[in-house]
């Protein structure tokens, strides 16, 4: 039988701003619509951040998050991966509150601290739609995306309590060692699912050699793992294609890359899903649906969430 590929669509994130693309989902309604289109196109999993309807700013408002994830759940059976990364500047409890309150099947768990610099994007915005955008982007040059061992223990223990499987976001190779340490202490209790996030300024560069090293190191330190790859910007398509060839799953979507190909903005995350699905099928793979993904990752099922 052909291997099943899990496609995740990361819908909006907390990095891109409304002025960067007219197609970036920046209201709860738009996020829901983009997630539904991505799922229909072949994404078994949708990765969700919340944004304010007023100005598209990333928000930790639990009412907004609930509106988004319950809106998606009412209309499809996609696996919803709720962020615990939030946006730069959010406090620990803010970032983890969606997990504690909504008990999702899957949630992101950032596996270590990293410089996360996206300030260069401010230079391309000549006339921002909102006053918050340029200062928000520029501040990232002096910010550390903090995920200490104390924080990681708190995240993972909370997810264990909620029956939520962590999706470990790995921005550099040292974060694999962090997870291995937490395995030895007994905090990590579930099968390991890694998302290698490549090409962020401050993290590991997006190259095939680096991806091969991440996979090799993870297998040596963590044993039997399931993994996926995401890459920023123009590296997205080459890296996810390489990931499939190497035995991994893939993440695309407007959180990671606003373009479909050079010079052409993607009009939805679904366009990127459609493209990577076609590549996967041409490579001889099958696409996992939501129920197959639940089985592959050992998720508790959509009936067990709290939204």
Textual characterization of the structure:
By secondary structure, the chain is an alpha/beta fold. The protein has a single domain (4-304), classed as TIM Barrel (Alpha-Beta Barrel), CATH 3.20.20. 38% of the residues lie in helices and 18% in strands. The protein has helices spanning 28-41, 62-75, 92-102, 133-139, 149-162, 174-184, 208-222, 236-245, 269-282, 290-297, and strands at residues 4-5, 7-10, 45-48, 79-82, 106-110, 114-115, 144-145, 165-170, 192-198, 225-231, 249-252, 259-261, 264-265, 286-287. The strands form four sheets. The protein has an eight-stranded parallel beta barrel, surrounded by eight helices. Strands 1-14 form a two-stranded parallel sheet. A two-stranded antiparallel ribbon has the order 6-7. It starts with a strand and ends in a 10-residue tail after the last helix.
């Amino acid at each position: 039988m052909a291997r099943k590929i899990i496609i995740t669509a990361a819908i909006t994130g907390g990095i891109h701003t409304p002025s960067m693309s007219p197609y970036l989902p920046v209201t709860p309604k738009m996020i829901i619509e983009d997630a539904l289109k991505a799922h229909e196109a072949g994404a078994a999993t949708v990765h969700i951040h919340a944004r304010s309807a007023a100005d598209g700013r990333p928000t930790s408002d639990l009412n907004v998050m609930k509106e988004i994830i319950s809106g998606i759940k009412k209309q499809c059976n996609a696996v919803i991966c709720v962020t615990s990364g939030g946006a730069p500047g959010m406090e620990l409890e803010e970032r983890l509150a969606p997990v504690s309150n909504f008990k999702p099947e899957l949630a992101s768990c950032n596996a270590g601290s990293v410089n996360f610099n996206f300030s260069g994007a401010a230079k391309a915005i000549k006339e921002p739609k909102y006053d918050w955008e340029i200062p928000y982007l520029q501040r990232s040059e002096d910010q550390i995306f903090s995920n200490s061992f104390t924080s990681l223990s708190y995240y993972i223990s909370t997810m264990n309590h909620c029956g939520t499987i962590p999706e470990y976001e790995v921005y550099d190779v040292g974060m694999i060692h962090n997870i291995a340490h937490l395995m030895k202490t007994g905090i990590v209790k579930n099968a390991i699912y890694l998302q290698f996030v490549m090409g962020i300024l401050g993290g590991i560069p997006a190259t095939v050699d680096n991806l091969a090293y991440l996979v090799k190191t993870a297998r040596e330190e963590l044993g039997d793992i399931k993994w996926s790859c995401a890459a920023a910007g123009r590296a997205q398509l080459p890296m996810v294609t390489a990931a499939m060839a190497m035995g991994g799953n893939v993440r695309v979507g407007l959180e990671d890359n606003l373009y479909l190909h050079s010079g052409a903005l993607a009009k939805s995350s679904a366009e990127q899903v459609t493209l990577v699905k076609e590549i996967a099928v041409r490579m001889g793979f099958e696409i996992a649906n939501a129920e197959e993904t639940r089985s592959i990752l050992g998720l508790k099922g959509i009936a067990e969430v709290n939204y």
